[in-house]
Protein 1
Amino acid sequence: MYTLIHHQKMQKFDKIRPFYDAEINEAIRSSVNHPMMKALMNFTFPEVDDSVWKDQLIKTHSIRDFQCNFIYQSVQKVLEKSSDGLTTSGFEKLEKNTSYLFISNHRDIILDTSLLNAALFDHGLVMTASAIGDNLVNRSFLLTLSKLNRNFLVQRGLPPRELLQSSKLLSEYIQQLLLRENRSVWIAQREGRTKDGNDATHPGVLKMLAMASEDENLMSYFKNLKIVPVSISYEYDPTDALKMPQLMAEANNEVYIKEKNEDFMTLLSGIIGQKKRIHIHLAMF
């Protein structure tokens, strides 16, 4: 009976959760010949024949193996080709085998969480499940890649009633990860990347997190979540020019409508563009 109840409880997260390890190999096999997978692997392993990385990919059966053997290597190549290196501070204050809720400023769609996870891996700490807006993964390959990389979906553009239900589900899933699965979580301090450098946590993020607390004292609940503020800094922002149209529209009190492929172009620009020095700082209380 317990197993059935647990299964039903976990099923409700199916529309937002990443892949389970049992689903990883099938997802990889369905994507191994995709042109974007080839582009990612050729960038990561430029001297390696395609048959080699394909053979290694189809032998992969867990998110951790996919992250460590492929995505971690991709991040190192990004650092090598388009930065002057990554430095960190505060990681030594975290305890191993312990889950934390990282609430971060947001500068880059993909790299913020990828660089944090690379640093957590280097320090032997629990890597994160990371929130990503479903509007950023509306291409089937990007959705598969995000779920392979332990991203969970934040549903955007919902009417008020559905938004409330979605927020409750998201809150419960984050609670499940942190308190029952010992899995760290990354979430941005506000919806979307900060365009003007004003890094203020949106109260709605904290309200969403509190929705799963039920009758527990809220301060005690937040303490149990082990919240760690994260600050990430890029010396150069390769997407700065891409942010200007939205900032200009907001300055003129105009409604800004994104171009069809704007998020995808911003994603690529952030990865490929020059960032110079990058630093991640964790603040522990």
Protein 2
Amino acid sequence: MSKRKLKALVDEKLVSGWDDPRMPTVCGMRRRGFSSQSIRNFIDAIGYTKFDALNDYALLEASVREDLNKKATRVSAVLNPVKLVITNYPEGKTEELVAVNNPENEADGTHTVTFSRELWIERDDFMEVAEKKFQRLAPGKEVRLKNAYIIKCDEEHPCDKDNEGNVTTVYATYDPETRSGMPGADRKIKGKTLHWLNCQDAVQAEVRLYDRLFDFRDLLNPDSLKVLTNCYVEPFLKEKKAGDFLQFQRTGYFTLDLDSTPEHLVFNKTVGLKDSWKK
């Protein structure tokens, strides 16, 4: 919190300015997506004193998570995409499915998401040769797609690869009796629930992943910012504005950055769903 140290970061252009989302300033925290209430809750938790005090940054992050869990709209965003093709889903068909905005607050309502034959999923949610405890998509394994169907990865031809061996497309079939809200949706499976996006209307976006500005030795953390440019988000997010609280499902809390435009959406990671710093 040393003003001298923070000013040096700004002057030497090691950060983008006083409102850089990594900076422990009010404008930086606001741009990163911290809610004012979460900061007040943090101050109440640590107490007030005239003396210098040292508090773990994890306490502030925990306060932010607790508050945003009540406020953030749940949406799907795929940060490292790979295409999923549902081979037995009719070509050209689409369905409008209902997604709950916030299960912690029924008054926040719902929005619709479009389901089709070709979807984006996270690359890490598929393994061609999976270990026994892997509970996501792998040859012969079933998973549930959030708000949609149970699908099963093809065993004979689970994926396509490029010349360098990178997976480009994953193949699966769906069970039409298992759509969310139908009786068949209660069928028990071992696989996890995965988030996804419809390839036809997903919006490409830039996502900035922020971590702590300094490491435990009080040195500048070289990994405090990672920029991902090949991400996809729901078209629903075009309606959002800087300062709105969002939860990218299974990833963390995010907000639109001031640099964002309707043609180029930019999101800042506020905080992860769990504290990963100590791992």
